[in-house]
UniProtKB/TrEMBL annotation:
SUPFAM superfamilies: Clavaminate synthase-like (SSF51197)
One Pfam family of this chain: Cupin_8
One GO CC annotation: nucleus
Protein name: JMJD8 protein
InterPro entries assigned: Cupin_8, JmjC_dom, JMJD6_ArgDemeth/LysHydrox
JmjC domain boundaries: 99-233
Membrane-spanning ranges: none
Single GO MF descriptor: cis-regulatory region sequence-specific DNA binding
Length: 233
């Protein structure tokens, strides 16, 4: 379902295509800056399994763990996947705090979701000394995770559009940890001078964003979105 959140046509994150080699990825991006990768994988088979009907048929009665959409304190709530899709998967309320916003992303039971992930084709690049772990999510338009940081990883949009905002480790963004990304976009973002704006871009299905270690990032789903991240730990 398309949302009412505007898409920013400007993209300030560098893009690369399937011609990007592993050595160039390591040299230019792996430890220094984000990049959007296009055409590096074909996940059409995985996408076909991620429709509303297919996911409800496969996982409807199973519990999923939801997290609150704030930066430092994550309250967890377990609900059946079907209840989440039919009752909680809705557009973000602009005035709702992050501590009151439930978000399905990352707490996947691999016993139940593992067979789905076997069909996912991850990006072909790795960081030496790390191993990949998947985090799968579905969220409504206007939802997202406010600014936070962790280790490096990739994130791919399967359905919908997802807007990203990124700052390097030495530039801490100005944000309230219990303010949703939508509220930050409406209230704080317009006040930022050009030099203080984040790197940003909107990802579409099939595009993959790589973010380096300790980069601040916030996300905003412009539509009801399905997405998967590959964290390198």
């Amino acid at each position: 379902l398309a949302g009412t959140v505007p898409e920013e046509p400007r993209c300030t994150v560098e893009r690369a295509d399937a011609s990007l080699t592993y050595s160039v990825f390591l040299q230019r991006f792996a430890f220094s800056r984000p990049v959007i990768l296009g055409g590096v994988t074909d996940n059409s088979a995985f996408r076909a399994l991620c429709t509303r009907e297919k996911l409800l048929a496969a996982f409807g009665p199973f519990p999923v763990r939801l997290s609150t959409a704030n930066t430092y304190s994550y309250r967890k709530v377990d609900v059946p996947f079907q209840e989440y899709v039919e009752h909680l998967l809705r557009p973000q309320d602009p005035v709702r705090l992050g501590s009151d916003t439930l978000y399905f992303f990352g707490d996947n039971n691999f016993t139940e979701w593992g067979p789905l992930f076997q069909h996912y084709v991850p990006p072909p690049f790795r960081i030496p000394g790390t191993s990949p772990a998947y985090s799968f999510g579905i969220a409504g338009s206007g939802s997202g995770v406010p600014f936070h940081w962790h280790g490096p990883g990739f994130s791919e949009v399967i359905f919908g559009r997802k807007r990203w905002f990124l700052y390097p480790p030495d530039k801490t963004p100005h944000f309230h940890p219990n303010e949703t990304t939508l509220a930050w976009l409406q209230h704080t973002y317009p006040t930022l001078p050009p030099a203080q704006r984040p790197l940003e871009c909107t990802l579409r299905p099939g595009e993959v964003l790589y973010f380096p270690d300790r980069w601040w990032h916030a996300t905003l789903n412009l539509d009801t979105s399905v997405f998967i991240s590959t964290f390198l730990g």
